[in-house]
Amino acid sequence: MTADAVLFWSLSIALVMLGLAMGIAAWRIVWGPRAQDRVLGMDTLYLNGMLLILVFNIRAGSQSYFEAALIIGLLGFAATVALAKFLMRGEVIE
Amino acid sequence: MSRLLPYPLLSLFLLSMWLVLNGSVAPATLLNGALLGLLLPFAMRTLEPPKARIRAPGAILRLAGLVFVDILRSNYAVARIILSPRGRERVSGFITVQLSLQSPYAIAMLAVIITSTPGTLWVQYDARSGQLLMHVLDLVDENEWQDLIANRYERLLKEIFP
Amino acid sequence: MTDAAQLPLWAAWVVTALALAGAGLSLVGAIGLLRLRRFYERVHAPTLGATLGMGLVVGASILFFSLLEGELVLRDGLIALFLTLTTPVTLILLARAAVFRDRTEGSEDVPADLHH
Known about the structure:
The structure holds three protein chains of three kinds. By secondary structure, chain A is an all-alpha fold. Helices cover about 85% and strands about 0% of the residues of chain A. Chain A has a single domain, classed as Orthogonal Bundle (Helix Hairpins), CATH 1.10.287. Chain A is elongated and about 55 Å long. Chain B is mainly alpha-helical. Chain B folds into two domains: about 10-45, no CATH class; about 55-160, no CATH class. The chains are: A mainly alpha, B mainly alpha, C mainly alpha. The interface between A and C is large, with 55 and 60 residues.
């Protein structure tokens, strides 16, 4: 087996695993049962999405999606903080 | 020195972040990074953060090693809990721990350490009484956690932030 | 998948092992989101992917691109740094919000406020 084939197949498996993790997180977003569960699901969804992009980068052999991963990481943080604040106060900006 | 570079560590961090992000040490990149490092800390000055004094570089390394090992161990422990069949009895719950740290930076550091370790979660800290409410996934003995935090983390954090 | 062929076979296996371990750990964290029964137990689950899982995937990426470009490429380390700093903040805030909501509803699962 060449290095090329090893990377291609095993990283495809890793992509499927991360996609599955995103699916489970999406299930939590849809079914809750409470609002904090949905926010936690979203947090997990963006985290796994970011890891998916990193693995995709390795598989493609280029860093063209690095900025996308960085932005998902930072925006996901801001979104979760804003939602947690909303759950606590009912308002984002006081 | 202090008028030109109010936060030297922050300046250094910004410069190195810029270099890593660009992936080069070309003169133009260096100049841009140096400008960032010189100018951005002035925005920080309006926030007036309390002065941090960091001591004991040896203690920082020991703490980093300790946290790394703890994260490895508790990752394994939590993964086992998640994958184990439903039958096993396991108690999870809230505990209250008395902290003796004073420096806000040390407390923030402890919050990051405790939350980053799977299986423990920092919930609420009361600055007046110094009490911390945290949630533990696999709670065996409440006193054990009090001991663990006081002897394992707090002692080193007090050395770093006197 | 054109450039990756230049990588030696051992390096391909190491990158593979790191990426698979990281993705697997992250998946286990997501399964925890599914299996654990109460919200305060589920909060612990995503930390698996956010700490060691993320570290392994970032390690695979750094190793791969450093070997590919023949120099140390540390850009992905920045993602690891930012994520290590931000994940605790989100989880602490989320836990506090959940505790606050449970307290105002008078739930018995949550201990009373520390201020008194």
